[in-house]
Each structure stands twice: as structure tokens, then as C-alpha cells.
Amino acid sequence: MSTNRMAHFHTLKVADVNQETPECIVVGFEVPEGLRKEFAFQHGQYVTLKLTVDGEDLRRSYSICSSPLDAERFCIAVKKVPHGRASTQLVDKLKAGMSIEVMSPMGNFTTALDASRERQFVAFAAGSGITPILSILKTVLRTEPKSRFTLFYGNTDVDRIIFRQRLEELKAQHAGRLDVHHILSKGADEDQLFNGRITTDKAVALVQRFVSDRNDNEYFICGPEQMMVNVSEALERLGADKKRIHIELFGTPVSTEAKKEATHATSTVFSGVADVKVILDGREHELKIKANGDTVLDAALDAGLDVPYACKGAVCCTCKARVVEGQVEMEMNYALTDDEVADGYVLTCQTHPRSQRVVIDYDQH
């Protein structure tokens, strides 16, 4: 589920910065009345920040950890990562009262809610992967009063559990509807199920012990790639409906087998220079792009177009656009659903023309 609006950067004021763990801060942003509609978001979505570090413009995406039910402001969590230029600057230097450029919310890591429904939500998170899960969790508990939520949360040790106190408060507030199980890689629990990393076998055992076997369970997975792969395999082994498994990958994938998606691919290989029309903010731009050269996104940026992007690694969907004419092919795709790909949507950071004429519309986001 994604928004249909075009994403733009806006300057927002930092309302507050709170230290959550030694490596993680929670940043609250003020949203002026005139931007409330632009920054309306769905639980589980993210925003992209634009930073200048040592004279270089950097873009980084961070998931929203607050609930859309609290519309006057929103919060993100930022965890400092080794050698991370953007995260280091934010964690070490960001203060209340500062201003920062923030792109309007995006993302598909969400699902429709219905106050009349009664079902179980199950989430697996590791480290800062808790950020969008917390937004989903808080929104589900307030929107679907008959539903329950079970969270399996992996961390190194107790001191590095992001939102530990907040999760305890939510458990007390929603007694009997929220279960939280911590799995610590350096844990010393008598029950070995709660020690070590979340492997495929461990994920299977956790679900079998704590999750009722119902067809309408909704599953959310967010964290490092290996944890995501392990849990996905576990859920498939348990027969979970793939359409009810929602995945948000934190970081660029490192596996050698990338998820490949050919979109509108032709039976013949096009190797020439394509005429590519890019539609952006209602204006049309004509570009010449080599089939085996730059991606559509890079070519558009080189032409001076202010096209939206963040990771350039096929993980987020910030550069998403729709192919309305011609054939293209994506190198990798970790962000779009199968239905979106079938509907003509592509990640332009991974897209190359495969026909003489191509029209790509960023406004049909």
C-alpha cells in the first residue's frame, strides 16, 4: 500500500531529540499546519532526510516510529552505525530547534486496518528494525480493539533494546492483547529459545509456541537481511500466506542472489540509445539513455531533474515511477510488490530501457 502523491523535500524543525540507547536517538519533528496533508502517513512508512556532510549531499531513509493517529508531529529513530556518516552526524550533533530537509512519507510496509476485525498480528524485528514495527503496533492496538499483537524482538543485550520501556508501557496499557518476547544474542535465559540469533528453526519454534494457528494472521518482518531471510523461510515452512507477509529490509542487501524482476521485457534484446520521456511534476522531459548505460534515475539526475531518490540500492521505493509506454528492465527489486511490478511500476534506480521509446511517469507514484 503506497501513496499516490509525488514526494518532495520540505524544511522541518526538530522539536526534540531524546537518547534512547547509547547508539540510538529518537527525533521528533514539528509539522506546520500547512504541511499536515503532505506529511500524513500510514503506519510502517518512512521519510528520507537530506544532509550535508563534509560538503557532500547525503540522503538517508528512516522509518517513522510514531503513530499516524498523532498527526501534529511524527518521530523517527536513528541508530549510529559503524562508519555511517549520516547517522553519526545526526546522533552526535542534532539538537532541538535545528531545521532539516525531510521528504514526505513513503513506503509499502503497511496494511489496511478495520476496527471491526479480530485477528492476530505477528512481528519479527531485530535492532533498529523495531522502528516501523512500533508505529504499526501502536496503530493496530488503537484501531482494532479486538485484535492481538505478538512481537519477537532480537537484540545483542538488554541495554541495546530500543524502545524497551515504551514496549513495557504498551504491554501494561493493552493487557492481554500485546505479547513481547525478547531474543538476545548474548542472553543467558534458562530457555534457550530466547538466546542467540533468530535462525529459521528458532523462528519456527517461536511461532509454534506463541502464535495461534489462524489463516488471517498478518506478519511483519524488519531488520538485517539474514534475519529477514530466516524468518521468511520459517513462515513459508509453516504455510503462511505470502500475501500476508510484509517485509522491510534495513540496509542494502549483501546476498549474491539478488531478487530480479523483468518488467515489460521484450523478447529481443535492445542495445541502442532509447528516447525516454520522463514526466515529473506535470512536466515532460526528453532524455537519451543507452540501454546498457546509466539507469533512468542517474540519467535524469545528470539532466538536472529533481527526481526523488534515497538508497539507490533497490531497498526503498523512493524512486518509484510507472512505465506507461515501452519496455524496461530492472536489475534488482527488494521494495515493490509483485502486484506493483505487474502494474508497470519500477524502481528507476535499477531501470534500463529495453525499447526505442519509453515513457516513465513519476507523478503516478
- How far from one another are the termini? 11 Å
How much is the average pLDDT?
Answer: 90
Helicity, as a percent range: 10-25%
CATH H level, superfamily name of the largest domain: Nucleotide-binding domain of ferredoxin-NADP reductase (FNR) module
Rg from Cα:
21 Å
Overall shape: globular
What's the CATH class label of the largest domain?
Answer: Alpha Beta
Strand content: 25-35%
Succession of helices and strands: EEEEEHEEHEHEHEHEEEHEEHEEE
| CATH architecture grouping of the largest domain | 3-Layer(aba) Sandwich
Q: State the major sheet.
A: 6 strands, antiparallel
**pLDDT under 50 segments (min length 5)?**
254-258
> What's the number of helices?
7
Please provide the count of β strands: 18
Summary, kept brief:
19% of the residues lie in helices and 32% in strands. It contains seven helices and 18 strands.
Structural commentary:
The chain is α/β, with parallel strands linked by helices. The protein has three domains: 9-103, Beta Barrel (Elongation Factor Tu (Ef-tu), domain 3), CATH 2.40.30.10; 120-249, 3-Layer(aba) Sandwich (Rossmann fold); 273-361, Ubiquitin-like (UB roll), CATH 3.10.20.30. Helices cover 19% and strands 32% of the residues. It has helices at 85-93, 130-143, 164-173, 200-210, 225-237, 296-302, 338-342; strands at residues 9-21, 24-30, 46-53, 56-63, 73-79, 99-103, 120-126, 148-155, 178-184, 218-223, 245-249, 273-280, 283-290, 320-325, 328-330, 345-347, 351-353, 357-361. α4 packs across α5 (225-237). The longest helix has 14 residues, at 130-143. The termini are close together.
